[in-house]
Amino acid sequence: MKHSLLLLSMLAFFSFFTAEVAAQDWPQWRGPASNNHAATNAQAPLRWDITSSSDLAWKTQIPGRGHSTPCVVQDSIYLTTADTDAGTQSVLKLDRISGRLVDQWVIHRGTLPAQIHPHNSHASPSPAFADNRLFVAFHTDDAIWVTALTREGRELWKRKVSDFAPVAFQFGYGASPIVEDDLVIVAAEYDGAASGLYALDAATGNQVWKVPRPANLNFASPIVTTISGKRQILLAGADMICAYEPRTGKELWRSDTSTEAICGTVVWDEHHIMVSGGNPKAGVWCIGNDGSGAPLWEHPVRCYEQSLLAIKDYVFAAADNGVVYCWRSQDGKEMWKKRLFGGGISASPMLVGNRMYIASEDGDVYVVTASPEGFNLLAENPSGDSIFATPVAIDDRMLIRTGVGPAENRQEYLIAIGKK
Known about the structure:
mainly beta, Thrombin, subunit H, 4-stranded antiparallel sheet, 1 helix, globular, disordered N terminus, signal
C-alpha cells in the first residue's frame, strides 16, 4: 500500500512538472499566444550581471551567426545559425537546463545568398515546433526552403517553397514560419512573380495553398490569432494589412494602410489591430478588428525591424532612435514617451508580468514598467556587445542571444540569465 501511494505521489509530481514545463514552452516566433507575452507564471530576473556566476545560469558559445530567437520545447532549445566561412546553414540543439550544445545539423551547404543587408543574417527566421516536428526556413540557393526535422535531427522532408531572388535590393530574408494546426504558413514576399503567402502540409511538406502577394520586397512574419471568434492569419506590408483564412488562404479582409516594407509582426488587442513599418514611409498604424479595415489612427514613428507590444487597451513601441512610446489603442493618444538609448534596435520588446524587456543592438537590456501611467525604468542590464534576436523569458530565466567582440570578429553566445 505504501509503495502504491509513493508511486501515485511520484506520478502526480511528474505530471505537475510536465504540465508546468509545457505551459512555458516557447514553440515559435512570439511564443505560444503569438503576442510576445511570457507565460503568466514566468519569473524573469529584473537585474543581472553577466560576469557574475550567481546571475548567469549558463553561457554557450554559438557557432556562426544568426538573428533567430530560440524555440524552447520540452527539454531542448533549438536555434538556427549560419557560418559564412563554411557556407552552411544549420540547426542547433541545446539542453534546456544546462545549455550544453547537444548537436548541430547542417541543413544547407554552399548555397548562401551572395548579398544580404549588413544588419541581417543568413539565419534570421525563428524555428517553429508542433506535433514532435521542428520546422526551419532558410533563404538559400535563390529560394525559400523549409525543412521538417524530428527532435533528434532526422530529416522528415525538405521543400522549396518558392523562388526568392530580389532584384532591387539584396537584403536577404527574415520571415519566420508559423504552424497552425497541420499547416506550416510561410511568407515569401519579394519583387518577383513567385511572391506569395504559402501553406505547406506539416506531415508531407506538400503545398496546400498559395496566395499571390504583390511583387514587393517585404520582411514581415505572418501571425495567426483568433479575432471575434474567427482564426485569422494577419500579415502587413505592400501598403496594406490583410487577414486570411488559415485553412484555405481566402482573403477575409484588407485595409489599404501601412507602407511597402515591413519587418514587424502585426499585434492586436480586443478591438484593435496595429503594426509598424519603415520604408519608404515610416509609421505606426491602427485599424479596427471588426473586419472593415477602417483606419483609426497613425503616428509617424519609425519602428522598422522590431514589432510593437500590445496589452489590454494600450500599445508600446521602441523606436529606431531609442525612444519608447506608450499609446492608447482606442485613439492613439500618447500616454508617455521617453528616450531610452541612443538608437539601434532589431529585437522586439517582450512582456513578462507587468515588465517590458527591450534589448538594444548595443547589447543592453532595459526593463520598463508596462503601464500607461508613466515611464518607469526599472533596470538597465549590459548583456554583451550586440543583440539582434528577441530575448525569450522561459521558466525563471531569460534567454538572450548576444554577441561579444568587434563587429568584424564577433562571437555569438546564448546565455541564460537566472539561477543555476
